[in-house]
């Protein structure tokens, strides 16, 4: 994972200090690319423990076209909770403690963080127990999965981009149109978070499938390790579906940034030596990747350094 560590060093050494939507502030560079040869091991971060199970359940959630956090909460996956939670605490039906700017406040105030955690527990319980509440406050709008599997057309129909690209790879592997996009300008404002990983393209050569992702916005400390592993996994899964071997994952970043309240964590991570990459194992008992469950995908030989905690900017 030296490619990732070099990105961190590059931002700390050359990044421009910028303001951002969350009010946290970042150190940012524009335009950066990393390449991962998937023959050399699965690119799951070893300089800090990264929750592979969460990566798997989120990606399968995307692949199914789901956009409601209820599914993820049932899987004990909190990745998207803050965005759904924000929708609830900003609504007229919420009457609990003031949650204004809860992300930043909780990062610097331990007592307030406990209040947020208590309200988050209430929120998750209501999502799981109240179907109407889940439909209203658990849905994140037409985010990734919706665009990948049900892109709306002007004639009222939808396009399953993912199935279409799989068909193209199988039947016209040399095509330069193996593209799936999550950025739909008409619906960006209706999404809880406009797609950060915006567009990906597949490429077939010598019996191997490679994938390049363009990511418009990259939270380098918290988000990018997940994005690398998620799209490496996606490459493996689509290769499996198409009867190919995995090739390269190419990660192209637009605004690559380290949040100002992540700098010390990044410096701590840079002091650690990378370890051997794990091996990805996907069950052979399922005929299609669309039938896979979280427990069907694992890594073996994962021996990372300990986790490093940092606040998420919502």
TrEMBL record:
<feature type="active site">
    <location>
        <position position="196"/>
    </location>
</feature>
<dbReference type="InterPro" id="IPR000398">
    <property type="entry name" value="Thymidylate_synthase"/>
</dbReference>
<dbReference type="InterPro" id="IPR045097">
    <property type="entry name" value="Thymidate_synth/dCMP_Mease"/>
</dbReference>
<comment type="similarity">
    <text>Belongs to the thymidylate synthase family. Bacterial-type ThyA subfamily.</text>
</comment>
<keyword id="KW-0963">Cytoplasm</keyword>
<feature type="binding site">
    <location>
        <position position="313"/>
    </location>
    <ligand>
        <name>(6R)-5,10-methylene-5,6,7,8-tetrahydrofolate</name>
    </ligand>
</feature>
<feature type="domain" description="Thymidylate synthase/dCMP hydroxymethylase">
    <location>
        <begin position="2"/>
        <end position="314"/>
    </location>
</feature>
<dbReference type="GO" id="GO:0004799">
    <property type="term" value="F:thymidylate synthase activity"/>
</dbReference>
<feature type="binding site" description="in other chain">
    <location>
        <begin position="216"/>
        <end position="219"/>
    </location>
    <ligand>
        <name>dUMP</name>
    </ligand>
</feature>
<dbReference type="InterPro" id="IPR020940">
    <property type="entry name" value="Thymidylate_synthase_AS"/>
</dbReference>
<dbReference type="GO" id="GO:0032259">
    <property type="term" value="P:methylation"/>
</dbReference>
<dbReference type="InterPro" id="IPR023451">
    <property type="entry name" value="Thymidate_synth/dCMP_Mease_dom"/>
</dbReference>
<comment type="function">
    <text>Catalyzes the reductive methylation of 2'-deoxyuridine-5'-monophosphate (dUMP) to 2'-deoxythymidine-5'-monophosphate (dTMP) while utilizing 5,10-methylenetetrahydrofolate (mTHF) as the methyl donor and reductant in the reaction, yielding dihydrofolate (DHF) as a by-product. This enzymatic reaction provides an intracellular de novo source of dTMP, an essential precursor for DNA biosynthesis.</text>
</comment>
<feature type="binding site">
    <location>
        <position position="219"/>
    </location>
    <ligand>
        <name>(6R)-5,10-methylene-5,6,7,8-tetrahydrofolate</name>
    </ligand>
</feature>
<keyword id="KW-0808">Transferase</keyword>
<feature type="binding site">
    <location>
        <begin position="176"/>
        <end position="177"/>
    </location>
    <ligand>
        <name>dUMP</name>
    </ligand>
</feature>
<comment type="subunit">
    <text>Homodimer.</text>
</comment>
<feature type="active site" description="Nucleophile">
    <location>
        <position position="196"/>
    </location>
</feature>
<dbReference type="InterPro" id="IPR036926">
    <property type="entry name" value="Thymidate_synth/dCMP_Mease_sf"/>
</dbReference>
<dbReference type="Pfam" id="PF00303">
    <property type="entry name" value="Thymidylat_synt"/>
</dbReference>
<comment type="pathway">
    <text>Pyrimidine metabolism; dTTP biosynthesis.</text>
</comment>
<protein>
    <recommendedName>
        <fullName>Thymidylate synthase</fullName>
        <ecNumber>2.1.1.45</ecNumber>
    </recommendedName>
</protein>
<feature type="binding site" description="in other chain">
    <location>
        <begin position="257"/>
        <end position="259"/>
    </location>
    <ligand>
        <name>dUMP</name>
    </ligand>
</feature>
<feature type="binding site" description="in other chain">
    <location>
        <position position="21"/>
    </location>
    <ligand>
        <name>dUMP</name>
    </ligand>
</feature>
<feature type="binding site" description="in other chain">
    <location>
        <position position="227"/>
    </location>
    <ligand>
        <name>dUMP</name>
    </ligand>
</feature>
<keyword id="KW-0545">Nucleotide biosynthesis</keyword>
<keyword id="KW-0489">Methyltransferase</keyword>
